[in-house]
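User: Quick one: structure for sequence A, then sequence B.

Assistant: Sequence A:
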Amino acid sequence: MKQTTWQLQEAKNKLSEVLDCAQTIGPQEITRHGKKTAVILSMNDFNRMLGKKEGLIDFFKKSPLCGLDLDRQKDISRDVAL
């Protein structure tokens, strides 16, 4: 299995390999002086992370029907055959 944690100098020297690992294995951690300082992500992982799902309320606010008075009239009776 390939490495997922890289010392900064090694990551600089092997940047192509770090990027390949980010695409095939997953996020790659970069350390500086033994402390985790950065993460390299594939573009897919990055987009997935940013891809916040829209909530139902926001969906309805963007509707072309937003702002229209669509309240149901309660004084209208309906005959229903059962």
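Sequence B:
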Amino acid sequence: MAMSTILIVDDNKEFRGMLREMLEDANHRTVEAPDGKAALELYRQEAVDLIITDLIMPVKEGIQTILEFRRLDPKARIIAMSGGNRMSSSNLAMAQKLGANFTLAKPFHPQELLAAVNQVLAKTAE
């Protein structure tokens, strides 16, 4: 599979770094944004194959970000992730309903993330 460019959107810098390492170890190229607003600006300038976005973020939260990505590019491939609170599962269900191709509850195992990435990227290669 050709190298994919993945946009990581999360307000937690350490978490973004951890995802970047996992994805780059799996031969993906990554670009990062700390929030939905920055992610949308970056997406307009850069060819991105997949977006991995957190749902709980300042500036522009994940559900709004997913809706805007869908408006900007109906074919955008999106993995939504959320964790650490009771709201996560309902947030993830909402994200899936509004356009996320896949959802992950934090914390997740690196293998879960890579499997989700491969699954979402493979779907569009069909």
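The radius of gyration is 13 Å. The longest strand covers residues 78-83.

User: Thanks, that's what I needed.
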